[in-house]
Structures are given as C-alpha cells and as structure tokens.
Design goal:
α3 packs parallel to α4. The protein contains eight helices and seven strands; from the N terminus they run βαβαβαβαβαβαααβ. It has two domains: 203 residues, NAD(P)-binding Rossmann-like Domain (Rossmann fold, 3-Layer(aba) Sandwich), CATH 3.40.50; 31 residues, no CATH class. The relative contact order is 0.14. Helix content is 43%, strand content 14%. It is globular. It is an alpha/beta fold and 268 residues long.
C-alpha cells in the first residue's frame, strides 16, 4: 500500500461494481486514504476476495452483494452499509456494462437492459443513499460516466444514451441536493486498460502488447490505468472538493478536450 495521507479518514464510502477494474482500484485507494469502504457487486466470490485483499493490506472494507438493477437490493445495500458502519459519507456509482450494438442491432430488450444497468441502477443508488448522506450532514456522490455520454459512438447507441442520461441526472441532483450539502459529480475515465477491456480485445485477436501500442497515439502517450481514475475519485469523494458539484472531470489523456490526433483510437 502507498503511504496514507488520510484524505478520506473516517468516511464511509459505498462503491458499486467494485469487484475488479476501476471499482476495485478506487476502493483500494479510498481504503488506503482512511475510508471504510463497502464494496458491492453481483460477483460474490470476486467481490469477497477484493474486500479481503484490502483488509489484508490494512484497510477497512466489507463486501455486500447487490444487483443495482433491483431497487430493493439498492435500498438494502445502503441500509446495511449505514447500519454496519454507522453512516454513509460517499457513494461511487461505478457499476456499468457496455456491450456494443448499432442502431439497427439494438432491440428493445437490449436497450432496456443497458438503461437498467447504466442509468436506472445509479438512480436507485442515489435515491437510497441520499437519506443517509443527509443524515451524516452531507457528502459526495460520484457517477462514473463516459465520453460516449457526450460524443457517442455509432456502435454504442444504447450505452451512449444511458451515459448521457447519467450526466443529466448528475447535474440535476447536484442542484437538487446542494441544500443538503450533498455534492454530485461525473467522472470520465477515458480508455482504461482494465482486465475486462484486455479480455474483450483478446477475443478480437488483439494481443496485450498491440493494445498497449495503440495508447502511444493518444495525446499523453498511453492508455489510462484504473489507478488514474482512483486518484480523481479520492479527490471528488474527499473534503478537498467541498466546493465542486455538477462538474465533469475528464481523466482521459485529453481525448474529450483536445483535437483528435492523427491515427489515435477513440477513447471508450
């Protein structure tokens, strides 16, 4: 573990989609910085192993299985987290799913499932976390979005729409919850080389070495790591960002704000 600075010391933070990738990296770093972290995911064994790893490294962590597409599960998750740790100070809505489909390939069932995971689920979590955050005197909600929520990709129609909706939800709640000292922000991770991303490209015949090579054409010369997002998450879930709400933070090597470099891949 890195040397702790205590940036979220004493806070209780719930992280969804925490079994691996960005969610685990954020959970681990939040624990390193002094938070008690409630990891949640639908992957029971993997989630329990992730929480056990954080505990073994000296952090405070607990795994609670929940399916964010089920409102009763989201309610139970928040109530249980608050009951076991005494309060909730932060929520990181990281759980998401991004299978590809063009407009013509998108069925009603596919559309509904993508919205359930990427938009309805975060809505449920916000709804049921808010009373606990309010009771704690305020706090922070961080929604993990995507550049596709702003620009979109033709083969991610449903996902882009969901992440665009999540951005609108973020800005709406930032205003609605400000009087309760609850901040709500939106993180764009860029093209992160998570285990899932590497596996997806491996199925398409792209080796890890070749995948990393594509990162050299990005503006800052490499793909993002899960830890890049974790550093941003710690900031937005800490009191350091006490005056930051309704904001988009891009951690995407400039992919959403700089001119596209010749031959550069499109950040996901």
């Amino acid at each position: 573990m890195r040397m702790r600075k205590g940036r979220v010391e004493g806070k209780v933070i719930v992280v969804t989609g925490a079994a691996q990738g960005i969610g685990f990296a954020c959970s681990r770093m939040l624990a390193e910085e002094g938070a008690s972290v409630v990891l949640s995911d639908i992957k029971q064994a993997q989630g329990e192993a992730a929480a056990a790893r954080i505990v073994a490294e000296g952090g405070q962590a607990r795994f609670i299985r929940a399916d964010i597409t089920d409102e009763s599960d989201c309610s139970r998750l928040m109530d249980q987290a608050a009951r076991e740790f005494g309060r909730i100070d932060g929520l990181l809505n990281n759980a998401g799913w991004y299978p590809r489909a063009t407009l013509e390939q998108t069925t009603t069932e596919f559309w509904d499932l993508i919205q359930q995971v990427n938009l309805r689920g975060p809505f449920y979590c916000c709804k049921h976390a808010a009373p606990h955050l309010r009771a704690a005197g305020g706090g922070s909600i961080l929604n993990v979005g995507s550049i596709n929520g702003i620009q979109g990709l033709p083969n991610l129609v449903a996902y882009s729409a969901a992440k665009g909706g999540l951005l609108a939800l973020t800005r709406t709640l930032a205003g609605a919850l400000a009087q309760d000292r609850i901040r709500v922000n939106y993180l764009i991770p860029g093209w992160v080389l998570t285990e899932g991303e590497i596996a997806l490209h491996a199925k398409q015949g792209t080796t890890l070495a070749a995948l990393k090579k594509t990162g050299e054409s990005l503006a800052l010369g490499r793909h993002q790591s899960p830890e890049d997002s974790a550093f941003a998450a710690v900031y937005l879930l800490s009191d350091e960002s006490a005056q930051v709400t309704g904001t988009i933070l891009n951690v995407d090597a400039g992919g959403s704000s700089l001119p596209i470099q010749p031959g550069a891949p499109y950040a996901g």
